[in-house]
């Protein structure tokens, strides 16, 4: 046998065995840094509390709320139907099973938007799409939906519409009743009609 | 770093230049390996010449193992490489048709052109037939369209399909290829003994 062939055979085998120790990047689904940058810059990845409230009231089945705060805070209060995925346990397989469901729109929130934003970036790097961050977080939720502030009288009509929606949403979520201003209750004044005097006399 | 064009290191205009250079290199290697002779090619089927198997298997395992090292060194991102979609039924049938053509004609499409380049008449006829076949298929395509698009598995690799690690597959393939080289050498020796070489 040709010696060169024998040497080449062993060289090739050694190289092939060598690939076993390369630790090739197993997760090839991670997105490229440039694509991530473009996605991070998209303002459409934020949703307002009004949009979330509207979908909650409509009972949109595609809406998935994920609370990324620690479990202790989650048990105190959260949004209706929200699941708890604490930020520090995001990488567990049980937590990741909540994402990447086709058709679902995942809205991430925490007390503010920062923790939710961090979770969003991690999920985007893992190539999960259709994730959104609730603008303002739960603080924003309380400020806008639960305790809406009445707009100034000179505000445009849309501001009043928004206020009315928020007021109604607040009632929906908290069960609060319409506050009726007693002072301004209009008094019903009965006006007594004077008896008309029938023309008397005559024949 | 790579692939060069998707990562913007060179522009897409280079596609054709690279294609021509690769084509020239491919033709040169085919001719240098003796693939312009249909006897060398069909020798695989009669067992007296396994050069086709050796050349293509060598190219395959060197590329496969080489690309893994390239990925490891960061020269080429394997996740960015285009993988042809697999249509399993048409590919199976196409392979059978190709196999028949291969043994009957004595050429595969690439080698027939290298054989034309050195002036072989059988190769010229082969390519005429090739274009007639392409023409018939194109005109009758509506008949085959459903079958042509059936069994689409997407852009998958064996690793995606089986879940076996790519390096283990590479090792297994290399092992099979190297074993094939040695075994075919023995077969060649055995059969060539029976062939009387008339020297004038």
Oligomer: heterodimer
Mean residue pLDDT of chain A: 83
Q: Specify which chain pair forms the largest interface.
A: A-B, 18 and 21 residues
Widest beta sheet: strand line-up of chain A: 1-5-4-2-3
Helix fraction bin of chain B: 55-70%
Shape of chain B: globular
The number of helical elements of chain B comes to 9
**What strand line-up does the widest sheet of chain B have?**
1-2
By secondary-structure content and strand pairing, the structural class of chain A works out as alpha/beta
Largest sheet of chain A: 5 strands, parallel
Mean pLDDT of chain B: 88
Number of self-contained structural domains of chain A: 1
Relative strand content of chain B: under 5%
**According to CATH, what is the topology of chain A?**
Oxidized Rhodanese, domain 1
Can you walk me through this structure?
The complex is a heterodimer of chains A (203) and B (200). Chain A has helices at residues 3-18, 33-40, 49-57, 71-76, 93-96, 113-125, 137-146, 157-174; strands at 46-47, 63-67, 83-84, 105-109, 131-134. Chain A is of the alpha/beta class and 203 residues long. Chain A has one domain: Rhodanese-like domain (Oxidized Rhodanese, domain 1, 3-Layer(aba) Sandwich). In chain A, strands 1-5-4-2-3 form a five-stranded parallel sheet. In chain A, β4, α6 and β5 form a beta-alpha-beta unit. The model of chain A has no long low-confidence stretch (mean pLDDT 83). Chain B is mainly α and 200 residues long. Chain B has two domains: 1-82 and 162-200, no CATH class; 84-156, no CATH class. Chain B has nine helices and two strands, in the order αααβααααβαα. A two-stranded antiparallel ribbon of chain B has the order 1-2. The model of chain B has no long low-confidence stretch (mean pLDDT 88). Chains A and B meet through α1 of A and α3 and α9 of B.
């Amino acid at each position: 046998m040709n010696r060169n062939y024998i040497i080449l055979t062993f060289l090739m085998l050694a190289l092939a065995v060598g690939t076993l120790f390369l630790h090739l990047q197993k997760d090839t689904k991670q997105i490229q840094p440039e694509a991530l940058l473009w996605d991070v810059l998209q303002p459409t990845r934020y949703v307002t509390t009004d949009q979330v409230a509207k979908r909650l009231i409509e009972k949109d089945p595609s809406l998935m709320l994920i609370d990324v705060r620690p479990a202790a805070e989650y048990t105190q209060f959260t949004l209706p139907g929200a699941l708890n995925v604490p930020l520090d346990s995001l990488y567990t397989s049980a937590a990741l099973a909540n994402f990447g469901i086709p058709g679902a729109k995942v809205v991430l929130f925490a007390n503010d938007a920062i923790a939710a934003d961090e979770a969003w970036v991690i999920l985007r790097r893992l190539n999960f799409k259709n994730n959104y961050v609730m603008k303002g977080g739960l603080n924003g939720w309380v400020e806008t939906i639960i305790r809406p502030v009445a707009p100034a009288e000179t505000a445009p009509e849309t501001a009043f519409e928004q206020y009315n929606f928020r007021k109604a949403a607040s009632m929906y979520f908290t069960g609060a009743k319409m506050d009726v201003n007693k002072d301004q209750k209009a008094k019903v004044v009965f006006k007594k009609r004077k008896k008309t005097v029938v023309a008397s006399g005559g024949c | 770093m790579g692939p060069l064009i998707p990562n913007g290191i060179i522009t897409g205009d280079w596609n054709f230049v690279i294609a021509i250079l690769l084509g020239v290199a491919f033709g040169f290697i085919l001719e240098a390996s003796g693939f312009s002779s249909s006897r060398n090619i069909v020798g695989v089927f009669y067992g007296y010449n396994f050069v086709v198997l050796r050349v293509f298997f060598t190219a395959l395992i060197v590329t496969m193992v080489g690309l893994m090292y390239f990925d490891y060194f960061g020269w080429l991102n394997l996740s960015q490489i285009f993988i042809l979609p697999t249509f399993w039924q048409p590919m199976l049938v196409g392979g059978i048709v190709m196999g028949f053509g291969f043994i009957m004609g004595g050429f595969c499409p690439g080698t027939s052109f290298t054989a034309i380049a050195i002036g072989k008449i059988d190769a010229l006829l082969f390519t005429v037939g090739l274009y007639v076949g392409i023409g018939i298929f194109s005109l009758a395509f509506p008949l085959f369209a459903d079958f042509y698009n059936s069994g689409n598995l997407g852009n998958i690799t064996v690793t995606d399909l089986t879940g076996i690690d790519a390096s283990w597959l590479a090792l297994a393939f290399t092992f099979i290829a190297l074993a094939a080289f040695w075994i075919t050498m023995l077969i060649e020796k055995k059969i060539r003994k029976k062939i009387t070489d008339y020297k004038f």
